[in-house]
Amino acid sequence: MKKRIFSVITLCVIMLFTGCKPSTINDSIKPNVDSSTASETFEVNPPFFKVTDEKTGAEVYMLGSMHIGKRGAEYPAELYAAIDKCDTLAVEVDVPRLENDTEELRDAMNVLKCKDGTTVKDYMGNDYDEIVGKFKEKGYYNQAYEQYIPALWTSQWTNKALKNTGYETDTGTDRIMLNYAKEKCKKIDEIEKAKEQYQANADTSTELQMLSLKQTISLSDAETQAQLDTLYNAWKSADMETLKSLVADDNDNTPEELQDDYKRYYDGMYTNRQKKMSDYIETQLQTGNKTFVVVGALHYAAPPSILDNLENDGYTIETLSKKGLNTSSAVIAA
Questions:
Q1: Which of 122, 161, 328, 333 is such that its CA lies 20 to 30 A from the CA of 151?
Q2: In angstroms, rounded to a whole number, what is the distance separating the alpha carbons of residues 113 and 127?
């Protein structure tokens, strides 16, 4: 089986939103970043779309985000101009707001706790000693993790590994666009709640969680770097075909005996959430609103994607991503 970060966009997105703040899990996992270090600037050309309702005159701009980023990334001016035209910016979750809402964050994290008095050792079985040993060897282990399911362990490993890759959560697309919109006093809508996102991981079978965890911790630092670079390069050049292939790889590399589990996971992580996102967009169109939507890039790629749903409902999608923009200087693809 090909080694890769299982559902890489999920691991770098869903549970990295909150960063498992110290007040919740007694362990800060923000990457160590020296903000005084100057970074070379480079342009990014993320997936960017527009849909219009001719009857209401509504416009919805749709940006595919990376929830991790690199310092020095410069977004097209057209993105900010589009936000200026809109009344509302919609995101999956307003992360800065969530990070300051201890009660909501704790409620979301509780979804990932082991059930009925068990510990993670009951989930990991014979793999427990080896996995804990790898966490300790890397300096990633925290006693508090023992009360959380394997999906949390996978997220923690991935998040901690970011500090050696040049990627960080503080420069993710969502934060950048949220900061700009708030400065412009735009209305902020949250399409989801953190608890819903965490639940998609909690509902994943133990067997599939363990596959994800074992694949992730088996990657070398170089392999982790290469896979993140591949994802980031595809995103920053609006390479939708590569983004689609990353989703397909997950399915292709799932053992036959876990295919049904993967289908349930996929529906929870992509199909159902993308239906909710496209329903939100259609509501904005039907009510005549001008809205800027920022959600993870794979939600525009994983079938049935947001774009698929809108087109099936009769809407025409306009692609606004710049054509022929050279973004190769910042990151070397794997």
A1: 333
A2: 19
Q: Residue 48: beta bridge partners?
A: 63
Residue 323 confidence (pLDDT):
63
Per-residue confidence (pLDDT) for residue 249, from 0 to 100:
77
Residues in the chain: 334
As given in the structure block, the two tokens for residue 310 are: 């809108």
Tell me the β-bridge partners of 129.
Answer: none
In this predicted structure, what is the pLDDT of residue 11?
A: 38
Grouped pLDDT means (10 residues each) for the chain, 334 residues: 45 41 38 48 97 96 94 96 98 92 91 93 98 97 95 90 87 95 98 91 93 91 90 95 87 86 93 97 96 96 97 97 52 30
> Quick check: pTM over 0.85?
yes
Q: Which residues pair with 90 in a beta bridge?
A: 189, 293
**From CA 47, how far away is CA 14, in angstroms rounded?**
19
